[in-house]
Amino acid sequence: MSSNLANEPARVAEMFRKMVLIRSFEEAAGEAFHAGHVRGSVHQYIGQESIAVGVCANLREDDYLTSNHRGHGHSIAKGADPRAMMLELFGRVGGTSDGKGGSMHIADFSVGMLGANGVIADGCTMSVGAAQAIRLLGDDKIVVNFIGDGGINRGPFMEALNWAKVYELPVLFICENNQIAATTTTHLVTAGEGIAARAESFGMPATTIDGNDLFEVDRTVARVVAEIRTGGGPQLIQAMTYRLRGHFAHDEAGYRDLAEVEAALGREPIARTEAWLLENGMTADEITTLKAEADSEIIGYVEEAMNAPWPDGKLAFSDVQDVGAPSYPGADQ
Amino acid sequence: MSSNLANEPARVAEMFRKMVLIRSFEEAAGEAFHAGHVRGSVHQYIGQESIAVGVCANLREDDYLTSNHRGHGHSIAKGADPRAMMLELFGRVGGTSDGKGGSMHIADFSVGMLGANGVIADGCTMSVGAAQAIRLLGDDKIVVNFIGDGGINRGPFMEALNWAKVYELPVLFICENNQIAATTTTHLVTAGEGIAARAESFGMPATTIDGNDLFEVDRTVARVVAEIRTGGGPQLIQAMTYRLRGHFAHDEAGYRDLAEVEAALGREPIARTEAWLLENGMTADEITTLKAEADSEIIGYVEEAMNAPWPDGKLAFSDVQDVGAPSYPGADQ
Amino acid sequence: MTAMTYAEAARLALQEEMARDPKVWALGEDLGYEGGMAGQYDGLQAEFGSDRIVDTPISESTIMGAAVGAALAGTRPVAEMRFSDFAMCAVSELVNQAAKARYMFGGQARVPLVARMPIGIRGGIAAQHSQSPEAWYVHTPGLVVVTPSTAADNRGLLKSAIRCDDPVVYMEHKGLWGVVGEVDEDDEEPVPLGVAAKVCSGDDITIVSWAAQIGVAALAADALVEDGISAEVIDLRTLYPWDRDAVMNSAARTGRLLVVHEAVRIGGFGGEIASDVAETLGIPVARLGGERIPIPFSVPLEDAYKIKVDRIVARVRELVA
Amino acid sequence: MTAMTYAEAARLALQEEMARDPKVWALGEDLGYEGGMAGQYDGLQAEFGSDRIVDTPISESTIMGAAVGAALAGTRPVAEMRFSDFAMCAVSELVNQAAKARYMFGGQARVPLVARMPIGIRGGIAAQHSQSPEAWYVHTPGLVVVTPSTAADNRGLLKSAIRCDDPVVYMEHKGLWGVVGEVDEDDEEPVPLGVAAKVCSGDDITIVSWAAQIGVAALAADALVEDGISAEVIDLRTLYPWDRDAVMNSAARTGRLLVVHEAVRIGGFGGEIASDVAETLGIPVARLGGERIPIPFSVPLEDAYKIKVDRIVARVRELVA
Ligand SMILES: Cc1ncc(C[n+]2csc(CCOP(=O)(O)OP(=O)(O)O)c2C)c(N)n1
Ligand SMILES: Cc1ncc(C[n+]2csc(CCOP(=O)(O)OP(=O)(O)O)c2C)c(N)n1
Ligand SMILES: [Mg+2]
Ligand SMILES: [Mg+2]
């Protein structure tokens, strides 16, 4: 694993802790889904944790993040509260959206997390607008948008690349290339040399990195964020990775080549970061403890969620709009 | 002007005749618009005639063409009947759409002209589908799509580029780069090096040519069409040109730099082709006659259109759909 | 008669039509391996090849736009949009192009495509995956709109939709994918477009509905028997053209009309039916539909949106009282 | 009072709001030099700079999507779509994102944007430039829908739309751009959303309409005087929320209702109003709207689509008879 003089073991340990927390969250979310406690769909981020964590370690709390359907990891990394997120998945009071949103609509505006998104690539166009708002308000925030390697083929994403560069907006697009979109091997439906070449055709600098290498993510994003924040214009980072689970919790991914999965497990980011930490002063015991703490933190949230009150049906009628707000129980006339 | 051993003077004269016919048509359409005979909008093709004519000279009648808002030239070049087109502009019986469509909806399916289009870039996605149909039906037709340099920034066009290359479809995209979109100088809203670089980023061969040079258009399209027809996959040609008139007939183009217009007039395709013909055996008299014939042909259509019957209001209710067809006069219940 | 699910019946219909007519093909995301969201394309790529069951990039505009172009060029594409919510990424292609090509070109074109876009609540997939925008497309000239409610109808109506020379917006209800019904496999006749089905007969009130709401309406009709109220339930099946004669005849006889749909009530298609009946017959009319809120995620919130049996029963009681 | 056109009044409103609130900005194609399709942005780029009147690429999805993001991030964008037909290239951004963000995120977000998308027939711009899809957006939870019919309202309602914290679909009518009306420049108060205006008073029938159709309805009311029929014309101005009280009160008094809109009648918003009135008051209702055909190009064909004075008069006579 590549290293870096700036790699402070304490800092790495903290990033590692977040990665492990995401992993625990996702395992628990999957189990809760299979146990029937969580409805809808749950797209797990397992195997990609180093990307969200490495990216967000280089953001300020007031920077914005826009995400996609696979947004749990992005949210936790940006600072959203995993307890409120778990309550949301369970549809309970106290959830990030009070049960109105669910897994695909996690958001925490207090930490700049402007929302997961159920519609692929719509978050991309929203990002460039958020960046225009930043400019208009005279702030030095930046916007980070996460997009998958399947999502890059939607027109709005491509429009957004052009737009970001035309106005030289402070946007960082992170394409998490896990090589698959649902059941589709993306290179089969992606013409040309891929997203980096496309971004460059818009005049946008693009860097391809090993997304499972926390240090490479950290180092690259640190540089790129600094460039963007100081007015360097938008950039794209393609983070190569691998989706270790099915597309969503109810997908057994039978289409996956087992040898490929096996190989990917060997490049999985948590074990790699763990190995570095073991070489750099952390003990196996400390790591075991850290993981157990993460697990028990998350299990606590699951238990809390399981026992938390359901929202009152009335809540379904709030927060629709101010003008012409619906009334409960609603006139059936 | 570049030349080519294959340039048969008779063939060039025939292409020239079509260019002149388009010019006459567009001048007449503009006049009819200003005189109040033609309603709606009329986007003239003046100054770009060599592109449509040079492209279509290399197509078979059964090849498909999809166009945009500036479709008169494309239509005439593909073989649509200018008489029926003029009747359509005037909204009269006998128009290509019997008065239902107007300038932005000229089509002639009998010669593979699948329609102008009032929505920018929607024709691009339709093109790749037409190409899939060709493949499914086992034909060796190709599809040509015309797109402007403003239209290339719409997502559906970019999706279509990817799509065409993924399935290696027989599609030729012609980007007519007249450097402007309505009143917007396109390089100001187009990031990167432009459309050729973008096409290449999708793995699609792209050739940039002087679109006002009939011979360069002819030669390039001949080569590219042959490659596409024999299974070479999609390509893009960027034809540099200049819009000599306003965006539409009611636009005086006051935003135009007069020196630029002056310079563009010097590169205008009809005069350039004319010069070649004069050097290659055609006499000035013959050219004068040819132009006069085109003018009088078109003036004849204008007069006919002016005197042609209006469609009966009932016709508004036909050709909507088979199932649930509206009835005339329509029940007001 | 064979028992099969709504999804299996749709698969059968597509398979039969693809076998019958080589010009029929389908395009969309994950149709091959996944076989569609509910297995409605299972095995068809293996049977017909990847040129006829086309796995596409995530490019909704082009899925729909390509279908329009392919229809203009003489084939019969089925454009699978997965969710009517995602079809909102392709509205121009559907409404500006597919719906208008024939007309704008003075009858030169035909656009025989099926825009397949499931609607409705499946449970917990919330605001961006549960919408029922059928009223939009009913309001759009050029389009036919179909909303099957049973396995047999999903087979028979999909066949009609594929054979139709007009663009058809085909809206399966996601909540019905797994519902089993009897299908007569030997009878390959399509179910005609524009013809309603009578779910149960009654004399006191006509209840008009479609898609998943039909099951709820039928239960309500059962419950009303205890009140001595006999309700006639009509499944429109096709929303445009809707079977106006069937509705008017029934409503003229019962003297009361209630339209029930899962879609939002305000601006919903129930307004068309109710106002048409009121204008034509001058009888009491009423509508039930979702409140004008996005579909929420959590169980009690989603429940608060749904039109359940008790609400239908209560409304009918008021009308009949 | 100053006489100005509908377009000039809109320009004035935007200028006033941009001067008042530095968070207000606009984005769209050709706003700078061209000043918008009807001059409704004339001179504003010179006054406020190209960061606040932004000339964009031809990227409708991003015009709308960027507006959503910019609204979430604390500004008040006006997304100019030029034609409601082109806004169909950005339906997901409007309906899946703008309309739902606040709700899906449990109230964390506000989306104070104006999606400006002119509707209607201007004359000869045919099927892809003349649509009136207001009913779609009325049916969409989260959205406010505004359709001004006069210069004064275009100023006052645009101001309200810009100040509103909800996403507003603002639908000017292209046929009204050049129509002159009196505007009180000194009165900077916005016209409230959701409040109808009485165009003329009457006792025999209530005619509800909006946008360009108001002018036609008013002429019809004039013509009906000769028949001894006194018609009250109500301009809804806002379609969602529509001023139900004003309509119900008037209709309860006159005892008859006619809704007239330029949009296609079938599935149009007239169905909502007529059925609601029929359900609530049980009085005779009727609707007039365009036939379910795309808007054709040629004069007699376009005329055959339009709802002219004589048709309104005839329908009212039937109702009052
Ligand atoms: C516009 C749209 N089309 C289709 C879908 C359905 N869908 C959800 S996730 C997904 C695959 C996404 O793949 P990718 O972008 O690579 O992200 P990943 O799942 O690999 O993280 C698809 C097709 C959607 N949500 N939105
Ligand atoms: C989707 C869409 N957006 C906007 C328009 C309005 N419009 C018509 S033509 C035009 C400019 C097109 O420029 P370009 O593509 O360069 O073609 P040109 O007019 O130069 O031939 C615009 C913005 C439209 N017709 N469709
Ligand atoms: Mg992926
Ligand atoms: Mg141009």
Largest interface: A-D, 52 and 52 residues
N-to-C CA distance of chain C: 41 Å
Inertia-based shape of chain C: globular
User: Got a strand count of chain A?
Assistant: 7
Shape of chain A: globular
Give a written overview of the molecule.
The complex is a heterotetramer, with two copies of chain A (333 residues) and two copies of chain C (321 residues). In chain A, helix 1 (9-34) crosses helix 2 (49-56) and helix 5 runs parallel beside helix 6 (155-166). By secondary structure, chain A is an alpha/beta fold. Chain A has helices at 9-34, 49-56, 72-78, 82-89, 122-137, 155-166, 195-201, 214-232, 258-266, 269-279, 284-307; strands at 64-66, 143-148, 171-177, 180-181, 184-185, 206-210, 235-240. The mean pLDDT of chain A is 96. Chain A has a single domain (5-307), classed as Thiamin diphosphate (ThDP)-binding fold, Pyr/PP domains (Rossmann fold). Chain C is an alpha/beta fold. Chain C folds into two domains: 2-183, 3-Layer(aba) Sandwich (Rossmann fold); 197-320, 3-Layer(aba) Sandwich (Rossmann fold). Chain C contains twelve helices and 14 strands. In chain C, the strands form three sheets. In chain C, strands 3-2-4-5-7-6-12 form a seven-stranded mixed sheet, with helices on both faces. A five-stranded mixed sheet of chain C has the order 9-11-10-13-14, with helices on both faces. In chain C, strand 13, helix 10 (270-281) and strand 14 form a beta-alpha-beta unit. The mean pLDDT of chain C is 97. Chains A and D meet through helix 5 and helix 6 of A and helix 3, helix 4, helix 5 and helix 10 of D. Bound molecules: thiamine diphosphate (2 copies) and magnesium ion (2 copies). One magnesium ion binds at residues 148-150, 178, 180-181 of chain B.
